[in-house]
Design brief:
By secondary structure, this protein is of the alpha+beta class. Helices cover 44% and strands 18% of the residues. The strands form four sheets. Strands 13, 14, 15, 16, 17, 18 and 19 form a seven-stranded mixed sheet that branches. A six-stranded mixed sheet has the order 7-10-9-8-11-12. The protein has a three-stranded antiparallel sheet with strand order 2-1-3. The longest helix has 39 residues.
């Protein structure tokens, strides 16, 4: 930063109020590069502009790039914390600690506020009156748990649409796994009493659940309802079997706890959270922070640990207690407790773990953090070698740490959409994925569609520029992309085209059994060659395939939103007349999906084989969408 500019900002900061709020530091292009919060804005921001050797290298680099500082006042310091987290999420400032989740960990959502609640797999915690349990490490395990609870406690598993339109009990009721609230065979209060056991089970009150079920079993036996008693006995044994597989830390508490641990060096820091629910460990979750060394004496552990908690608990389940590996002081602990209480509507304790049980949990988190860091670094080094090979073979001026790929998708000449997929350091950065609905192009025109997408993309100066753009296609598509970048004034960004070609050994065959990838560069006649098993090859083909998948998923979602006929387009043997017949009889795809094959077969023009094919196709489509997420 020029000396005059430095002095100008420092003088401006002297006029900042001594009030709580959030400050925003801006760099070139008016881009926000850092967001912070303060109890007294003037004192906090002024500390950056004191020529101090105590500043970390990251802070010194930040100060060199500051061209403007603004602030937003808040009523309290708690409000400043809440606002800071939302601004970091929105602007993704370069110099903030930023949590990047490559996948959304699953929760079990119990819609307890509904008249007849049911269980769902959820990826986000919302204030919607539901109860949330988790996060768990496996979506497969969550689905298995939901199936077990539905079966054990007779919880409805039909969709809301199906529930509202049902006129007679489904097969689930007939086999004794549901009480048919859809047709009023059971009232609201009675239904909630039946499913109360699932809530207690998820809350960890297992002794109470088993005791209640044993009482019901004995009562059923006394009344000579032996089949009911046998089902309850089997359910009790199933619950005991599940409980034996869980790691028990403390079977005398019903508190939900998170223990935080970390491990890091000059290569980065990995923060690990261990999730304990009612005394049982249900999983761990790693969070890697690149280019951050927690051992640097210039780093204030209180600051980065609080920043982590503030961001992490902006989106995730907030437990009753958070155990920390370091002492952040009573003032900051109390402040974080107020912030978390504001978000969760319940009392939260934040403390340095000094007791034996607390230390054991934190030690577990630290050990997991070390193991996950070493694993992450090993993978990162492999990715780095791949990026170096890409840089060398494609003749790039910089390491391609950020690669972007775009895919245009059109379905049967109808609505055109596009996807933007981003890889950072060779791995998907899903928070930077974008979907585009083409607005200015009618019909199929890939060139015009790509022009619109790239024009809209590079109007966003808050996004970092890519070091490389990957285009799905050969020389023709590559030349089009180059022309578009020139027209929008971004010809400085390198581009590579990827295209499949029939392998030479297959030329005599009617069908292509194997293909090879060809990598085209501007101004070069022959394609660049990468070994099929190289990391560079996997990165480039991986981002192309991911962009294609992302676009197709978006297209399918739009088609479902605009016309329920779209799902039926994929059913072989289902013409327009039969589709109209189905859509006259049923109000939605969900209704058709849940219908009995025999009922569909009775419709004019239908038969049993076609009916079963329709239901099979629709259910397969639903499963694919869940997996793709």
């Amino acid at each position: 930063m020029a000396s005059s500019r430095f002095e100008e900002i420092r003088d401006k900061v002297k006029e900042f109020p001594l009030l709580p709020g959030v400050y925003l530091m801006k760099g070139a292009g008016d881009k926000i590069i850092y967001v912070g919060k303060a109890k007294a804005l003037r004192n906090r921001v002024r500390s950056y502009f004191i020529d101090s050797k105590d500043h970390s290298p990251k802070t010194r680099l930040l100060v060199q790039n500051i061209l403007e500082v603004e602030y937003i006042l808040t009523k309290t310091e708690v409000e400043a914390f809440l606002l800071e987290a939302s601004l970091i999420k929105k602007h993704r400032p370069k110099y903030n600690i930023r949590l990047r989740d490559d996948k959304a960990y699953p929760y079990i959502r119990f819609s307890w506020s509904e008249e007849f609640p049911r269980l769902y797999l959820a990826r986000k915690v919302k204030k919607d009156g539901s109860l949330y349990f988790g996060p768990y490490t496996s979506g497969f395990a969550v689905q298995g748990t939901i199936r077990f609870l539905n079966r054990t406690f007779k919880i409805r598993d039909c969709t809301d649409v199906m529930f509202k339109t049902r006129t007679r009990p489904c097969m689930t009721y007939q086999i004794g796994r549901c009480t048919a609230p859809c047709v009023k065979y059971v009232g609201q209060e009675e239904y909630k009493q039946e499913v109360e056991g699932a809530k207690l089970f998820l809350k960890g009150q297992n002794k109470k659940v088993i005791k209640t079920m044993k009482e019901k079993m004995m009562a059923a036996a006394d009344e000579e309802k032996f089949e009911v008693a046998a089902r309850l006995r089997d359910s009790i044994e199933s619950i005991k079997a599940i409980l034996q597989k869980q790691s028990v830390i403390n079977d005398t508490t019903e508190k939900d706890q998170d223990a935080v641990g970390f491990y890091g060096d000059e290569r980065g820091c990995l923060i690990e959270t261990v999730h304990v629910r009612a005394g049982r460990v249900i999983g761990t979750r790693p969070h890697f922070l690149p280019h951050f060394d927690p051992n640097d004496p210039a780093e204030d552990h209180r600051e980065w640990l609080v920043d982590f908690m503030n961001q992490y608990y902006d989106d995730n389940f907030i437990p009753d207690e958070v155990l920390l590996p370091l002492d952040i002081g009573s003032d900051l602990s109390k402040l974080m407790e107020e912030v978390l209480k504001e978000r969760s509507d319940h009392k939260v304790t934040v403390r340095f773990a000094t007791d034996e049980r607390g230390r054991n949990l934190v030690d577990m988190a630290n050990e997991n953090a070390k193991a996950h860091l070493l694993k992450h670094v090993s993978k990162s080094e492999e990715k780095l070698r791949g990026l170096e090979e890409i840089k060398e073979k494609l003749g790039l001026p910089d390491m391609p740490r950020r690669i972007e790929c775009y895919d245009i998708s059109t379905f049967q000449g109808a609505e055109t959409v596009a996807s933007q997929v981003v890889f950072e350091e060779g791995v998907p950065a899903k928070e930077h994925y974008r979907r585009y609905k083409i607005k200015t192009v009618e019909g199929i025109n890939d060139f015009a569609s790509m022009y619109e997408v790239l024009s809209r993309r590079f109007k966003h100066t808050e996004y970092e520029d890519p070091n490389l753009i990957v285009i799905d296609g050969g020389k023709g598509q590559l030349s089009q992309a180059i022309k578009i970048l020139e027209e929008i004034g971004r010809k400085d960004i390198p581009v590579v085209g990827l295209a499949k070609a029939r392998t030479e050994s297959d030329f005599q065959k009617q069908e292509v059994e194997s293909t090879e990838e060809r990598f085209f560069l501007p101004g070069r006649q022959n394609p660049v060659v990468f070994k099929n098993n190289s990391e560079a090859f996997y990165i480039l083909t991986g981002i192309r395939d991911e962009a294609h998948r992302f676009a197709i998923t978006y297209h399918r979602k739009l088609r479902e939103n605009t016309s329920i006929e779209s799902e039926l387009d994929y059913v072989v043997g289902l013409g327009e007349k039969r589709k109209k017949t189905l859509l006259t009889q049923y109000n939605s795809i969900d209704e058709i999906r849940m219908a009995e094959p025999g009922d569909i077969a009775k419709l004019k023009g239908f038969n049993r084989v076609l009916a079963e094919r329709i239901i099979l196709q629709l259910n397969d489509s639903e499963e694919e969408e869940i997996e793709a997420e």
